[in-house]
Amino acid sequence: MAELISVNLAVPRPNPAKESGVTGIDKRPVAGPVLVRAPGPKDGGLGSGLVGDGIFDRVNHGGDDQAVYAYAREDLDAWEAELGRTLPNGAFGENLTTSGLDVTGALVGERWRVGEQVVLEVADVRIPCRTFADWMAEHGWVKRFTVRAVPGAYLRIIVPGEIRAGDPIEVVSRPEHDVTVGLTFRALTREPELLPRLLAADALPDDLKEAVAKRT
To answer: Residues 92-117: pLDDT tens digits?
Structure first.
């Protein structure tokens, strides 16, 4: 069974890569329950969907369509082997570190029940930025991350509630299209010929659908 192995919240730190001056990419596991609720719009809302988390560049990050960021422990393990360094849960700035769940193969619009109550919906993918590159301090990090095409998933909150490490994760519904997290990332980065396929995923954020429609 898939499991939530850690819930990770931001420890604010200076961010030389952005004008905001502060970043919440340093996320660390917490003990006990964390309240999850829809944060509202990206610019002007609460930022993160997790109470106690922090998003400081609310023009480019956060909001209802990027309320929660999930990354698979299995994918962190693969990066550990390649980089030759330890990557603790939260190392990629993810809120949820999962186990036993194919995040890259998840369909846009797929819904997960976490614990007894919370329902999250796969909505978007993480595109690497300068903040991520500075945080990782690996040569050519943006290109390496992009080529690997294992981006993790941004989730929107369908049913709010509390989650905690150890909660089971159940896929409760999947749409009928074939637009996965991995396909979406590849289309938006290195394989633009895939862009028309994204329009089958109605659950993509509206601004992304509009951008894809213009590009196709």
So the answer is: 999 999 999 999 999 999 999 999 99
Distance from C-alpha of 93 to C-alpha of 105, rounded to nearest angstrom: 20
The enclosing H or E element of 157 equals strand 153-159
Distance of CA 78 to the CA centre of its chain: 18
Q: What is the dihedral of CA 148, 67, 110, 114, to 10 degrees?
A: 110
11: region left, alpha or beta (phi > 0 left; psi from -120 to 50 alpha): beta
44 pLDDT tier (thresholds 50, 70, 90):
confident
In SS3 terms, 16-71 reads as CCCCCCEECCCEEECCCCEEECCCCCCCCCCCCCECCCCCCCCCCCCCHHHCEEEE
Q: What is the DSSP letter of 193?
A: G
216 has a pLDDT exceeding 90: no
Name the pLDDT band for 22 (thresholds 50, 70, 90).
Answer: confident
pLDDT at 20: 66
How many other CB atoms are found less than 10 A from the CB of residue 60?
Answer: 15
The half-sphere exposure of 131 on its side-chain side, counting CA atoms within 13 A, is 22
Residue 96 pairs in a beta bridge with: 7, 70
Angle at 142 between CA 177 and CA 85, to 5 degrees: 105
